[in-house]
Structure formats: structure tokens, C-alpha cells
Amino acid sequence: MLLKGDKYSDVRGTLTYNNAFDASAIKRIYTIENASTEFVRGWQGHQIEQRWFAAMSGRFEITVIVIDDFDNPSKELKVEKYELTSIELTYLHVGAGKITAIQALEENSKLLVLADYGVGEIQDEVRYPIEYFKNAVFNTTK
Known about the structure:
mainly beta, Jelly Rolls, 5-stranded antiparallel beta sheet, 12 strands
């Protein structure tokens, strides 16, 4: 799910890049800035739509769960955690059928989000309470 980016520095400055990322499916772009490092934005996801995430500044932990049943998901699904930093332009691809919880690990962090459907093009968003999944643990006492 990670498309590893890199950076190059010389006397002119630094260039972060990701030559492996194919942006041809992207129809929408936006950013997320959490109110604090203690806030966890989630659970939210899509049955059809895909998302790509990259840290523009700071650091984020993104927790991903593959949903087994959108109407009544198991509360003990496997949790995968990914850390994105602005040091390199690494993208996290979250495919269809998955949900995320997003936590900034540093103040003033900004997350770039890319989506493969436009606003209102499909209605496939799902949300669950943050405490719903038993295997998901967040550090909210920083």
C-alpha cells in the first residue's frame, strides 16, 4: 500500500518526489489538518472509492482496516498502521473496501488526500464510531 518517495538535495535546495505514483485516476484533491495531535479522525472509508495520502508537513499515523461487512463489521478486524512524514513524498494507497483513522503526530501537520471520484459522483462513504474496533489503539495522551 506504500508507494515510496524520495528526496534530492543540493546547493539549490531540496526536491521531494515520487516517480512511482501514477496520478491518472485522480479526480479530487484536498488537505486535512487535525485540530490537535490528540484528535483521531475516523473511522471513515469507502466501499468503491480509493484514496491516496501523503504528508505535506509534519507526521501522521494512518490506521487502516479492511471491512468484512459494511452493514455489521466484526469488531475485531485486523488493524494496520502506517506512518507518513513530509521528509519524502511517500503515498499511502487505501483501496476500496477499507476505512481509516488519521492522527497527526506533530502539531501543524498537513495531509494531502487524493481521490478517484469527484464530490457527489458516488455515494459510498461509511463511518463508524472511533471506539468501535477493539484492536485499534491510539495514543491520545501526548
